[in-house]
Amino acid sequence: MDETELTEGGGVLVRPATAADAAAMAEIYNNAVVHSTATFDLEPQSAEDRRRWLAAGDTRLALVAQRRAGGRVVGWASLASWSDRGAYDQTVEASVYVAAEEQRAGVGRALGRALVDGARALGLHALIVQICTENAGGLALARELDYVPVGTLREVGCKFGRRLDVAVCQLLL
User: Fold this and answer.
1) In 3D, which of 133, 115, 99, 112 has the Cα closest to residue 30?
2) pLDDT tens for residues 57-90?
3) Is the pTM of the predicted complex or chain greater than 0.85?
4) What is the CATH number of the domain that holds 17?
């Protein structure tokens, strides 16, 4: 997906992320770090951390969802390499994060669909998501995007004083 491509959905434009989006991306991510099990990170990240992450090129694709009215970034998503081993080159881990006040408003769906489109354009084959089993919204989004459950990793995370299971789902293109 190049800089000129935009996808509309749910009242948002989905476009490639830039360094200028780093602060908004960090804010959205940090809300998930502090208040949810949408990520198993335990420490918030700075805007500079997000800028470095974007510049490092470890992700195959990074997108943001921007409200058409007002231009505010309300979500972001990425495709990251599943492994640095060569045989996994066409396999990526998909991630979607949406601002708390924008959840269940179509932002995650728009980002998820744009990730799938971007993965196809990049010639990727397998998309994998790992979702805490208590994250009903994340699991519902994965189902809506046609990801298929392939297993559950039991008690692999510990957050908020609880041992947590992770559902692994896959979409083959």
Assistant:
1) 99
2) 778 999 999 998 889 999 999 999 999 899 999 9
3) yes
4) 3.40.630.30
